[in-house]
Design goal:
It is a single chain. This protein is α/β, with parallel strands linked by helices. It has one domain: 4-Layer Sandwich (Purple Acid Phosphatase, chain A, domain 2). Helices cover about 30% and strands about 20% of the residues. The chain is built from eight helices and twelve strands. The protein has helices at about 15-25, 45-55, 65-70, 80-90, 95-100, 130-140, 220-230, 235-240, and strands at about 1-5, 30-35, 60, 105-110, 110-115, 145-150, 155-160, 165-170, 175, 185, 200-205, 210-220. The strands form two sheets. A six-stranded mixed beta sheet has the order 3-2-1-11-12-9. Strand 2 (about 30-35), helix 2 (about 45-55) and strand 3 form a beta-alpha-beta unit. Helix 3 (about 65-70) packs across helix 4 (about 80-90) and helix 3 packs across helix 5 (about 95-100). The radius of gyration is 17 Å and the shape is globular. It starts with a strand and ends in a 6-residue tail after the last helix. One of its GO terms (molecular function) is phosphatase activity. This is Metallophosphoesterase. Pfam families: Metallophos_2. It comes from Bradyrhizobium nanningense. InterPro entries: Ap4A_hydrolase (IPR050126), Calcineurin-like_PHP_lpxH (IPR024654), Metallo-depent_PP-like (IPR029052), Pesterase_MJ0912 (IPR011152).
Length: about 250
């Protein structure tokens, strides 16, 4: 089965629609959503409704820190992110907020683990910035492949049976074979707010039979997404950064 895995959509309808179009054109058969459906972007209602429809049709979804912040004042964020969350709270109805609050922190599916941040302490929202961080996540699970997001920059880590770590940034549209003799941590880029210098929306495709993963990018209508942010009175930096990919 060909999985399309998305993370950190952040209320960006234009980016998510572009990713879905590319994923479907490439033959994606099932969707996996790694959280942070809301925050930053100006279309949280549409994104959450779309996620709810996908889950009802069999998609996997987990909770991100921005999703949790909608229903919990205990989550601390920077000033601009906090403004976006408070605005988002006023846009979502009870059913949408309940959907976010009831999402699991992680999902085990066969020999794959799906989580927003990382597997060792998913509720603490740690970023995977290095092989040390990746090793902590990999040690915490027997899964052959763990998929996560949160940091908005793509990377691929692996650990051998002797705990030797490797890491690299995969090239777009170049399949990588995830060998069975190693554990893998696939860190996705962001759909709605990439921070790796490439403004195109990011997601991955994973073939469960061949164990090949492909990191994909989808150009989208950034001007419209940015305009929606500005028109709704959200901090302009949240709009400006979209075209910069940071």
């Amino acid at each position: 089965m060909l999985l399309a895995v998305f993370s950190d959509i952040h209320g960006n309808r234009q980016a998510f629609e572009a990713c879905l179009k590319v994923a479907r054109a490439k033959g994606a058969e099932r969707f996996v959503l790694l959280g942070d459906f809301v925050g930053y972007g100006a279309d949280p209602e549409w994104v959450v409704d779309t996620a709810m429809e996908f889950v009802a049709q069999g998609a996997i979804a987990v909770r991100g820190n921005h999703d949790q912040a909608v229903n919990s004042s205990a989550e601390t964020m920077n000033a601009e992110a906090q403004v976006a969350i408070e605005w988002t709270r006023g846009r979502l109805d009870a059913a949408q907020r309940r959907f976010l609050s009831e999402l699991p922190m992680l999902v085990q599916d066969s020999d794959r683990l799906f989580v927003h941040s990382e597997a060792s302490h998913p509720q603490r929202w740690h970023y995977v910035r290095s092989t040390v961080d990746a090793a902590k996540s990999l040690i915490a699970t027997p899964a052959h492949v763990t998929f996560c997001g949160h940091i908005h920059r793509p990377a691929l880590y692996s650990m051998s049976v002797t705990a030797k770590m490797t890491s690299f940034v995969p090239k777009t549209d170049v399949p990588v074979q995830l060998l069975r003799g190693r554990q893998w941590l696939a860190v996705l880029g962001s759909v709605g707010q990439p921070r790796d210098g490439d403004p195109s929306a990011a997601f991955v495709l994973f073939d469960t039979e061949s164990c090949q993963i492909t990191y994909c990018r989808a150009p989208y209508d950034i001007a419209t997404a940015a305009g929606r942010i500005r028109d709704n009175g959200l901090p302009h930096w949240l709009a400006d950064r979209l075209s910069q990919g940071r």
